[in-house]
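Thread amino acids onto this structure.
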């Protein structure tokens, strides 16, 4: 069984483009990279790659990660500007022995050294959106960085049984320069083990990094829970705990694919995810909040 799953309706583009590669026998790593690159390139997805959402000073800073579920190699970048495809840089970093997680200027220099295409990622449309928000903040005195965001995450299982996961995002709109979310952080934003499965997250990074739910879910699957039971337990137990102990909970949405090709989602907001498997053509699902 092979298959892939991705977050939000934007993942449909990546799943439609990359699922034929799975059918042709290509690796899960290639499939994750191709799916996410297509989404990063598309200018009208406003929270990923080209055309992504600017930070508080009108600059576009992106976070991304890639993980190989066979050997646990991870590559990640955070707070990077003007790299055409953060996911390709993350994947290349995952092939290094050291220096696997790079930030800002250092990540940009690495990308250049490795021959990745530099590209101005801020678009006129994103600048307009930022100016409108600035005007709104001036009018209302309220800055709500949380409004407007979304991360693309893709988990894939190939015909050889290998799994990979990738994430890419411009993070929260109007975030403080230098702010990093959960998306490049292993365990919190993503995790994959080819013998168990892969999990990835989207929502309010500040809350999702309070517990490594992606890793925890895989431990529950290993302990015998189904992928849906494991994800439900890990996500909703923590959402409840956070409500109880902290009094506030941001958006939490997670996708999972296990090593047998079964998939699941758990969310506390309306959410969409795209799937394609050996048995199922690319399909977009709507998920309702359970907590
Ligand atoms: C972040 N988790 O930077 C990302 C944003 C996101 O749905 O996924 N929003 O906190």
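Threaded sequence (291 positions):
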């Amino acid at each position: 069984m092979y298959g892939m799953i991705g977050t939000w309706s934007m993942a449909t583009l990546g799943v439609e483009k990359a699922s034929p590669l799975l059918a042709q026998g290509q690796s899960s790593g290639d499939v994750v990279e191709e799916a996410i690159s297509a989404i990063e390139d598309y200018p009208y997805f406003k929270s990923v790659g080209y055309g992504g959402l600017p930070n508080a000073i009108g600059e576009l800073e992106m976070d991304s990660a890639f993980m190989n579920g066979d050997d646990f190699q991870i590559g990640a970048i955070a707070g990077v500007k003007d790299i055409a495809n953060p996911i390709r840089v993350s994947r290349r970093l995952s092939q290094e022995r050291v220096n696997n997680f790079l930030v800002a200027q250092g990540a940009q220099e690495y990308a250049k050294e490795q021959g990745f295409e530099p590209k101005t990622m801020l678009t006129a449309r994103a600048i307009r959106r930022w100016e409108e928000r600035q005007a709104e903040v001036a009018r209302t005195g309220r800055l709500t960085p949380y409004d407007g965001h979304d991360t693309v995450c893709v988990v894939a299982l190939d015909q050889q049984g290998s799994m990979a996961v990738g994430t890419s995002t411009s993070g929260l709109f109007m975030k403080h320069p230098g702010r990093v979310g959960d998306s490049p952080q292993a365990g919190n934003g993503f995790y994959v083990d080819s013998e168990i499965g892969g999990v990835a997250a989207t929502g309010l990074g500040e809350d999702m990094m309070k517990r490594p739910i992606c890793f925890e879910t895989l431990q529950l699957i290993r302990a015998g829970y189904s992928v849906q039971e494991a994800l439900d337990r890990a996500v909703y137990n923590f959402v409840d705990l956070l409500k109880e102990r902290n009094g506030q909970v941001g958006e939490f949405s997670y996708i999972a694919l296990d090593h047998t090709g079964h998939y699941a989602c758990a969310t506390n907001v309306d959410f969409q995810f795209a799937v394609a498997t050996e048995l199922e053509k690319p399909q977009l699902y709507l998920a309702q909040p359970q907590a």
